[in-house]
Amino acid sequence: MSRFEFRRKGYIEIEELKELGLIPPSERLVKGPVAILECPEEIPCNICIAFCPTKAIKMERIIDLPRIEWDKCTGCGMCVAVCPGLAAFVVDLSKPDADYVTLPYELLPPPRKGDRVILLNRRGERVGEGEVVRVWERNKTFIVTVKTPKGLGMEVRSIWIERK
User: Fold this and answer.
1) How many angstroms from the chain centroid is the CA of residue 153?
2) Is 136 helix (H, G, I), strand (E, B) or coil?
3) Distance between CA 146 and CA 144 in Å, rounded?
4) pLDDT of 5 above 90
């Protein structure tokens, strides 16, 4: 049996991401926005490399896990916009009062700036409420930045909008 349970469970735990080397060091996390590629499968995909404006994402072979050179990443979110697996996120833990998470969103209607949303973790469980602070679109994927309570930036990976 694999030491990684994500294939069986259908979601990945942060401990597994750390073991795979896909989480930035804590000193980089608190410096400002940084991409996190939660892409644990060795599959032939490298679109994020082509679109990274700072060339921070590297792969030696097309089936390797994408690796980020943390000091080169500006947290622009382009990898979030182009990742076909919806596995790219940007987190900003540098603010004293809140965390910010940029994530892909492919449901309609899209969220709007100012919307209050339910924050979901990797398991799809509700972990709090947040506010949409930015929305942009690329190829029918909405890239949404949400303001979360402090301490949830590494947990929030999706949102739910309750429309009335």
Assistant:
1) 10
2) strand
3) 6
4) no
The pLDDT tens digits of the residues spanning 61-89 come to 999 999 999 999 999 999 999 999 999 99
| Integer-rounded Cα radius of gyration of the chain | 15
Q: How many CA atoms lie within 13 A of 107 on its CB side?
A: 9
Q: What mean pLDDT do residues 29-35 have?
A: 97
Scanning the structure block, which residue is given the tokens 């929305």?
A: 135
- Among residues 28, 4, 8, the alpha carbon closest in space to that of 17 is found at 4
Q: How far is CA 85 from CA 37, 45, 95, 112, 130, in A?
A: 10, 9, 29, 23, 24
The answer to whether 100 and 153 have CB atoms below 8 angstroms apart is yes
**Per-residue pLDDT at 1 exceeds 60:** no
The model carries a pTM of 0.94
